[in-house]
């Protein structure tokens, strides 16, 4: 199955959060990935319009910078909430580990544990695409200075897990603030500054000391974490 053989839709809210709808055309089974609370209604409208059945709702990690909409999706559909086994949320129905797969009919969703931005962060590997969440952004990567962030683990995610994946994979991140939809992994390997440090020590030093100074504060940090960990 290639990337043109399944239904794929991207959703965006004004602050740059990106969420995804993935579905198998044969069984009409669908998964919603990283629904930010403001995009839930639009996502469910799309599920209805395409005649789909949402069987999974996936939070790629415990978000610290916005409010997740997975609980609302879970209330309004039969979808089971999927997160990594280290996720602190108590309402998780399916806990996954590195290498686990879930299926929508014939469509495989493979989970890669890609910590760094958060300890429970997973990327979702699809045919021809990877949903990289905050592990890998277009031209950057997720910050590691928030709770449960770890620059050493981010280095291993980028320089080992992601560098081992095929160059032609389309990269669909969890955020983009410039209106871009996706990137190509080979281009990220070649040009992304966060993937081109000379070694682990230089990367970790930058992410821990210099990178936080370039970022805006997360104003709803405590409230978002409390809600998303419930």
Task: Tag the structure with descriptive keywords.
230 residues; 6-stranded mixed beta sheet; 12 strands
Describe this structure in words.
It is a single chain. This protein is an alpha/beta fold and 230 residues long. The protein has one domain: Ribonuclease Z/Hydroxyacylglutathione hydrolase-like (Metallo-beta-lactamase, Chain A), CATH 3.60.15. It is 24% helix and 25% strand. The chain has helices at 40-49, 70-76, 151-162, 185-191, 200-210, 221-229; strands at residues 7-12, 18-23, 29-33, 53-58, 80-84, 94-96, 101-104, 107-113, 122-126, 129-133, 170-173, 183-184. The strands form two sheets. The protein has a six-stranded mixed β-sheet, covered by helices on one side. A six-stranded mixed β-sheet has the order 7-8-9-10-11-12. Helix 3 (151-162) crosses helix 5. The longest helix is centred in the C-terminal third of the chain and has 12 residues, at 151-162. The termini are far apart.
Task: Describe the secondary-structure layout.
Layout: E1 7-12, E2 18-23, E3 29-33, H1 40-49, E4 53-58, H2 70-76, E5 80-84, E6 94-96, E7 101-104, E8 107-113, E9 122-126, E10 129-133, H3 151-162, E11 170-173, E12 183-184, H4 185-191, H5 200-210, H6 221-229
Parallel strand pairs: 3-4, 4-5, 5-6, 10-11
Antiparallel strand pairs: 1-2, 2-3, 7-8, 8-9, 9-10, 11-12
Helix pairs in contact: 3-5
